[in-house]
Amino acid sequence: MSTTEFDKYKVDHLFLLIGENPLPNYVAAKLLLKEGGKPYLVFSEYTEKSAERLKEILDLSDKEMVPLNNNQSNAYEITKRIREKIKDIKKYFPDKNSFGLNYTGGTKAMAAHTYQALLSHDDKDLTIQLNPAPVFSYLDSHSLKILIDQTNNPIPLDIPKEPLELSLEKLFELHGLSLSKPPKTEVTLPELVETIIKNDLAWREWCKKQLSVEGRQREELKREQKELEIQEGEEIASNQNNIVTEIYFNLKEWKNATDLRNLSLPIHELPEEITSVLEKYAFIDDNGNLSIQKLEQIQQQIEYEIPKPKKSKDYPEEICKWLEGIWLEDYVLQQLNKIQKECSLDEVGMSFDFPEKLNIIQFEFDVACLRGYQLFAISCTTSNDSGLCKSKLFEAYHRARQMGGDEARVALVCYYDKPTKIKQRFMSQIDDPKVSVFGSGDIADLSEKLKAWIQEVDD
After folding, report:
1. pLDDT of residue 57
2. Residue of 11, 32, 85, 104 with fewest CB within 10 Å of its CB?
3. Where are the alpha helices (DSSP H) in 347-457?
């Protein structure tokens, strides 16, 4: 193994304080252990699940677990259990005598008393005195560096990517979420996506008037009748013809698969640039309309198709969802792929699918990428409703921080024309200036806007 700046600080035995997010502990275990070294997970009853997941991913045994039960604030119990573990380690590994503590996770009491248990001598039991002195470290979420404690200022170390062996899939596993298939990395129908972006207003209007109205179930809200204004010279057969009934309704969930397959949607109001692409993909039926059934059939032959759901009967609904708005997620994925090398992104993906029986809430960010161990999460919506956009941003922020910790960065891509207002409202409740909102004016050159956002987190 080649010498790195981490080598002089690596230890044989590394104590890790487990908090709700196991990601910092995973990073420390990968970077601060000598070859053949062991991490020891110090956890309370509140963080036992996180510890168990980390135990499985790092392939540890019960011997590497240090349970505190409900004593996470008890100085005597914390000190006692840490020293007991040190004594066991020294007994079974007499030739491996370097120890360390990464105190990024856990409670403040756990950090203070574990620190003292390793640092202070025990006059009653000289066998647990440590020589050489233990190495204390902390993962700083602001600088994205590991800080090694010294007498004066700590030594900051850049975190290399290669030893981490981290992926989006493994990040989910750290939180107990197993994906049913790898994240989607290729753009669906890229030519259609690009054409929709160029004509997004016309496409979104068509979706409202045609796709949503014909494809969704309706709930009638009210009926209104009014007199039809008659132009001079027009003849009316009867008085009844002067009455027009207007029905107001609410659009609900999508219709069943059979009804959706039977949809034949007129496209004459769409720009020719879009209709020509639809014809090129052979999505048009004999009536010159967009056919959901033909689109479903042709998808089987296309390299980058709309992802199939777990149940094939739900595929027409997935197609309608994609046409209505998921194409924006594919566009964001496309733009991230363009800047992946330039921004040193290790992985870019979307469409996070979980086993059907897994009881989890719906993911609230749509596209994600990793740079080292840092998560960038992006929520997408074709809506221009400020309230909905703000809600999407809050949901994505909560989920991303839960998954990626304080280091995670969050953005929203939407069609609201005043994105700074959404960010200002967000920051009135959460002070995180590195959150970004991209609106309708940012869509055309989104790759450059995303690049600036990703790179600014280094400042």
Report:
1. 95
2. 85
3. 386-404, 419-427, 446-456
For residue 22, cis peptide bond before it (omega within 30 degrees of 0): no
Q: Calculate the alpha carbon distances from 331 to 53, 144, 197, 201, 367 in Å.
A: 34, 29, 8, 15, 10
Q: Which residues contact 148 (CB under 8 A, 6 or more apart)?
A: 9, 135, 136, 137, 154, 155, 157
CATH topology of domain 323-456: Trna Endonuclease; Chain: A, domain 1 (3.40.1350)
- What is the CB neighbour count within 10 angstroms for residue 391? 15
- Identity at 52, one-letter amino acid code: E
Longest dimension (CA), the chain: 112
pLDDT (tens digit, 9 = 90+) per residue, 369-426?
A: 999 999 999 999 999 999 999 999 999 999 899 889 889 999 999 999 999 999 999 9
Give CA separation, 1 vs 22, 34, 146, 225, 344, in Å. Answer: 27, 11, 20, 82, 24
Specify the pLDDT at position 123. 60
The CATH T-level fold of domain 10-165 is Rossmann fold (3.40.50)
Q: How far is CA 309 from the centre of its chain?
A: 19
What stretches in the chain show pLDDT beneath 70? Answer: 1-3, 121-128, 220-225, 227-242, 244-249, 303, 354-364, 457-459
For β-strands 367-371 and 347-350, DSSP reports them as: antiparallel
